[in-house]
Amino acid sequence: MEIALLKLLLAHILGDFFLQPNSWVEEKEKKKLKSAKFYLHVALHVVLIFIVFLSFSVWKIALVVGALHGIIDALKLTFQNEKTKRIWFFVDQILHTVVVLICWHYYYYAIINLDFLQNAKFLLFLIGALFLTSPAAIFIKVIIAKWIPESTASSLQDAGKFIGIIERLLIYLFVCTHHFEAVGFLLAAKSIFRFGDLKEAHDIKLTEYVLIGTLLSFGIALILATSILNVNL
């Protein structure tokens, strides 16, 4: 039965990301429910389900998924604005995925196995990953606060924070999957992009500040990942 779920997800990905031009998105956001592209987009999702299944026998699930897809998109178009557009994008995709899972479960009597949520090793891995996001960023910020340079180069808002989170999660994943060589590649890649800019800035204090933050970030991720690997549960 898993093949049915994969086909439903394939139809969704094709319909929402590959077969929806930017012009459709712009028209829908401008005209909302008055846009013909909105209804064409919903119809496309229904047709795609028929295509990926190569059968008309799935008409019930195709119509239900299509109708619910239209309702979710209508809610997004109605309530989103420029400030909440990014949030609504993720809410929209989560709801579409939930609809696919529910329809798959209902029409194919599939069992969604959530036993992994009771697995201590999985929960420990999840806690470690969560710690490496905002909590680790706060720890690092507190530690290096006294070394903040008087003037820092202009950058995107919170860019450094998100770069740190991504790099820690990547290191965590690499170590936990025993791909230690990828950690060296990541460090080398960041050195090329980051410290090249710092060299041009001719600011020793800023360079040292970034270096301390980077080493702390890498160190925390490495220590946490290796510790979790060696925990016996």
Structure notes:
There is one protein chain. With 233 residues, the chain is mainly α. It has two domains: 2-108, no CATH class; 116-229, no CATH class. 76% of the residues lie in helices and 0% in strands. It has ten helices and no strands. The longest helix has 26 residues, at 204-229. It is globular. The mean pLDDT is 89. Keywords: Membrane, Transmembrane, Transmembrane helix.
Q: Can you give keywords for this protein?
A:
233 residues; mainly alpha; 2 domains; globular; Phage_phiKZ_Orf197
Quick overview of this protein structure:
The chain crosses the membrane at residues 39-66, 87-110, 122-148, 169-189, 209-231. The protein is mainly alpha-helical.
Q: What portion of residues is helical?
A: over 70%
Task: Report the order of strands and helices.
Answer: HHHHHHHHHH
Give the amount of beta strand, in percent: under 5%
Spans of 5+ residues with little confidence (pLDDT < 50)? none
What is the global morphology? globular
Map the helices and strands.
Layout lengths: L1 H17 L3 H10 L4 H18 L5 H21 L5 H24 L11 H12 L2 H10 L15 H18 L3 H22 L2 H26 L4
Helix pairs in contact: 1-3, 1-5, 2-3, 3-4, 4-5, 7-10, 8-9, 8-10, 9-10
InterPro entries: Phage_phiKZ_Orf197 (IPR021737)
Pfam family, one: DUF3307
Organism: Pedobacter frigiditerrae
